[in-house]
């Protein structure tokens, strides 16, 4: 049907837009992601700050060290955003269709509950589909320094040769061979729990907003700060 084809096109358009935006933001912020990942896996992280850690990586591996695993990360974020926005738009369309069939007022707009459910469904689908990509990316980012620090034997007096960093496909195959296929889904349960992050954020935001509304009118500036506080609280709760 024409309507179904049009809706499918809209879903894909939103998914492609989200995928493109994710690629740009990932490319710009990837060095920070590298530092964050290294901080979580390296034992010597306690005595260095972010700037010192960046300098150590550059001195040891060059600027390219800050972009270890970028290839898989760009692929991962593009797939992640595509899947998320596609499923969100699909779920949203299903809710709107049901609301129109029931002749509900403002049927073209989702309720708060429907928005959260759509986000949860999209987030869960994204985690299950893309988790293997991020397992490979994290492994590549965390182990880049191992390949640089581990030297191949050379003749006396010669500088040690660095091992070549494994490729994305090489890392994927190594994980499957050495640890089994299911290792690609390590961390799925915690990641699924993280799906509640936006739900927590919205709930906290609404509670704070209602608290302010009891005393005065909420301004756009208030909404900005309350949203930031909601995100901070939700991230603090789910970070572990």
Concise structural overview:
With 240 residues, the chain is an all-alpha fold. 73% of the residues lie in helices and 2% in strands. It is built from 8 helices and 2 strands.
Report on the architecture of this protein.
The chain has two domains: 2-151 and 161-186, Mitochondrial carrier domain (Mitochondrial carrier fold), CATH 1.50.40; 195-240, no CATH class. The protein contains eight helices and two strands, in the order ααααββαααα. It has helices spanning 2-41, 50-61, 70-101, 112-149, 168-179, 188-193, 197-213, 220-238, and strands spanning 151-152, 161-162. The chain has a two-stranded antiparallel sheet. It is globular. Mean pLDDT is 78; it is low at 149-153.
Question: Which short descriptors sum up this protein?
Answer:
240 residues; mainly alpha; Mitochondrial carrier fold; 2 domains; two-stranded antiparallel sheet; 8 helices; globular
Gyration radius, rounded: 22 Å
What is the CA–CA distance across the termini? 46 Å
CATH class category of the largest domain: Mainly Alpha
Biggest sheet, spatial arrangement of strands: 1-2
Mean pLDDT: 78
> What's the total helix number?
8
**Quaternary state, please?**
single chain
What is the CATH superfamily classification of the largest domain? Mitochondrial carrier domain
Number of domains: 2
The geometry reads as globular
Instruction: Please name the CATH topology of the largest domain.
Output: Mitochondrial carrier fold
Family: Belongs to the mitochondrial carrier (TC 2.A.29) family.
Pfam families: Mito_carr
Transmembrane segments: 12-35, 65-87, 116-136, 184-205
Main location: membrane
